Amino acid sequence: MIEGLLSLLSSPIVSRAIIGALLIAVVASTSGTLLVFRGLSFMTSGVAHAALGGAALGLYLQYTGIAPWFDPILGALLFSTLVAMITGYAGETGISQKMEVAVGVSFALSMSIAVFLMYYIPPTQVPQIWGYLIGDILLLDNLDLVLLGGTAVLLVLLFIVFHKEFIYVSVDMEGSIAHGLSARAYHYLMLITSSLAIALATKAVGAILVYAIMVAPAAASNEVVRSVRGVVVSVFIIAVLSELAGLAASFTVNASPSAIAGIIAAMSYVVAMHIKKVREHANSDLDELELAVPGHEYGHGGEMGERDSSGGDESTRVVSEEPV
Amino acid sequence: MSETLLEAHGLTVRYPEGEVALKDVTFSVETPSFMAIIGPNGSGKSTLLKTALGLLRPISGSIRLLGHDSTRESAAIRRLVRYVPQRDRIELTVPIKVKDIVLMGRLLKKRPPRIASRTDKRIAHEALQRVNMDEFWDHPFNELSGGQRQRVLVARALAAEGPVLMLDEPLAGTDAESQRLIVQVLGEYHTENDVNIIMVTHDLNPIHSYVDNVLLLRRTVIGLGKPCDVMDPALLTQVYGHSARVVEYAGHRYCVTRDTGVDRHHD
What we know:
The complex is a heterodimer. By secondary structure, chain A is mostly helical.
């Protein structure tokens, strides 16, 4: 049995798939984490579908002879960048809700362009457009791995050098600008590199795996892990475990590795939400217990149970005083 | 020698939605100063602060901070300023630690990779001690209460460098103890250090005894002077409307209004 396992692991298909899984986990722990911090988990699917529109444009330009050199992957990367630019423009003031709307609009626009162009492309080539969404981790070739590897290395380098700036922009865009940071540049750098990474990862391993691995582990980790570094490490671990479990399942029960990995990653989010709820319940019980103790005073520096009153009901307020 | 801290000439600014936020604002305040900008919701207080920082562009007129024009010399202004935005502008989705928020004030003035030195950490600890939050050094910022978060943001400004602290509604939505502490710390910091403070607030009452200048604003300048000078019923009625009342109690005169909350003009 061990010999069978070793021969399976040494097969080029499986070893490429394992390397691909590790690289996708790297993309998720950098870009995926930052997008969830930025409140932009929806951007992954928006960018993947924008890439579809770009690929359709590439095929159209090739087929009509307008620009035979325009490879569909160039169109995919171009459209992904456009989504990042539109999203970035909407979110320049730091409000993530506006960016989610911009992603939704870009998503619809790209899909409309894709469907529009499909009408002018021979039906035999249309499946090639959809192929930009339907990859498979077991069908990775060496070029896919090189592209994914390059993307992962670039993301890791950017994350190591600029993670503070990306975090500052996510936490306090206005304050960062006021203190002299070129916040808009980092804002766009983060969105554009994430978009390009999503587009390339989607081309390599397929949309389902990218959606699942880019969003769910980061969202799950962000619910329960209490530090930025902890979230990054946790995302990597959840992503790798989900993908390896998916690969193992594909050999034992003949299932799609992406689907199994997606289900496991999504379950991690459900489990994390449950852990958070249990933890909050335990904390509120503790607060009630503390309040019930006669003479209890909150510790030095804090009134943890205090709630904001800003923006509350209109009330009478003393504005100023002057000695008479 | 005294120089001009903040001066505006014919300043008119629109909100991003198009409505006029400030119209023909002209005033001048000298250094050193602990200055309060007060007025009701929508009176343009935060807009004035953001325009001075170069975050918003005036449609006419100008505003200068320590002699630097807000549109042409915003980079110079941002080297001089330590800014505390309204608390609800801070995103709580990131599990950033209290220490990282405070160090952010210092590291933002450095170049990448913005490594915190031993001195940076010592100063950050001292700033947190001033606001009684040092024990939360390793605590996630998003798990703090509103008042605690505000104290940490004030500590960020105290730990940073630059001759001007600008605070946008630092007392809004905080408990009485946090308000008292923030005001006391800022007042002491202003007198101990050669630092100017410009604070936007609804409520002059807590900072009354520390403030040098008060700018009464309702889309334009209604009054400017010492706290006692602007405590004029006629001026306050112009700012807060006819609901404003001046009442006397225990030897003090208070202005009571029906205004509350934080300005929420999002751009």
